[in-house]
Amino acid sequence: MAKSGPSSRLVAEGTGRSAATKRSLVAAAIETLKTEGFAGASARAIAARAGCNQALIFYHFGSVVTLLLAASTKSVRPASSATAQRLSTSAHQ
């Protein structure tokens, strides 16, 4: 059964246009955070980078904060996994 509620909005699952738009917005948010920082990560800046209307941010995520949370979660998880792997490997040597 699929999750419902606010946390399920963070994950861009599926292969349809809606999922592609969510992935594009998350990628744009990540890049905007990298280049402009949190202060520059406005709905307008993120939407411009994604090449879409800023209303799509609110349609898919409910708020810019939720989109930024999704972006930071996506960015942190791979880094945490890689760090855990390195620590595990070095502990066994």
Mean pLDDT level = 79
Give the topology string: H per helix, E per strand: HHHH
* Span between termini: 42 Å
CATH architecture title: Orthogonal Bundle
Bin the strand percentage.
under 5%
Question: Low-confidence runs (pLDDT<50, min 5 residues)?
Answer: 1-9
The major pleated sheet works out as:
none
Globally, the shape reads globular
The secondary structure category is: mainly alpha
Which range best describes the helical content: under 10%, 10-25%, 25-40%, 40-55%, 55-70% or over 70%?
A: 55-70%
Q: Please, what is the CATH homologous superfamily?
A: Homeodomain-like
CATH class: Mainly Alpha
User: How many helix segments?
Assistant: 4
The overall strand count is 0
- CATH topology (level 3) name: Arc Repressor Mutant, subunit A
**Taking Cα atoms only, what radius of gyration do you get, to the nearest Å?**
15 Å
Number of domains: 1
Task: Give the topology.
Elements lengths: L16 H20 L6 H8 L4 H7 L2 H28 L2
Which descriptors apply to this entry?
93 residues; mainly alpha; Arc Repressor Mutant, subunit A; 0% strand; globular; disordered N terminus
